[in-house]
Amino acid sequence: xxxxxxxxxxxxxxxxxxxxxxxxxxxxxxxxxxxxxxxxxxxxxxxxxxxxxxxxxxxxxxxxxxxxx
Length: 69
Hints:
The model has no long low-confidence stretch (mean pLDDT 89). The relative contact order is 0.15. The protein contains three helices and no strands. Helix content is 70%, strand content 0%. By secondary structure, the protein is an all-alpha fold. The radius of gyration is 16 Å and the shape is elongated.
């Protein structure tokens, strides 16, 4: 299947919200990680998880990585 044969009118409305959610989660998680003083584990590991484990990475950071005082 060539790219010219792909039905983009069907794919874009499905993929665009997922990409938007990913970018919002990533941005909020990075900002929170920079502002917070202590996290569970090293900050550099959480940066890698947030950036490279797509939608699940930021969610893992908020569930596991944040240290609640």
